[in-house]
Amino acid sequence: MTEPSATGKIAIAAPPEKVYSLVSDPGALAGMAEEYEGHRWVGAAGAVVGAKFRGRNRRGLRRWSTLSTITDADEGKRFAFEVTTVAGLPVARWQYDIEASGDGCVAVESTWDRRPGWLRGPTSLFTGVWKRDDANRANIAATLARLKAAAES
């Protein structure tokens, strides 16, 4: 796999299983993320490989939906999903890697921009984000800080 287009990591004083339970729950993740604000399961009701959920996203007044398919669900270690447009065009991969460390763990959030070149302009216009990698780095830092707070509480 290529290098992620944006990534961040944080040490968390909580067991890997607790952190995993937060990132693998799309509802809990919505409470920590910057643009992602909610979900609805599509033909599934849990975070298992192959399950799909429709994500609701927002940035200011702009709103959009995506379809995500869970690709990795290794409890306490990795949770990941591929995001597409509602029409099935590739958008991104989001991945959370968790590694035990001392009396807690280290969580790494990464994303890969999967949009074909021709789709980047229209999606940037729609979402209002022209420098997606920069925005995702900032979003990841904010999400990880909230994840730390939630896991350590």
TrEMBL record:
<dbReference type="InterPro" id="IPR023393">
    <property type="entry name" value="START-like_dom_sf"/>
</dbReference>
<dbReference type="Pfam" id="PF10604">
    <property type="entry name" value="Polyketide_cyc2"/>
</dbReference>
<dbReference type="InterPro" id="IPR019587">
    <property type="entry name" value="Polyketide_cyclase/dehydratase"/>
</dbReference>
<protein>
    <recommendedName>
        <fullName>Polyketide cyclase/dehydrase</fullName>
    </recommendedName>
</protein>
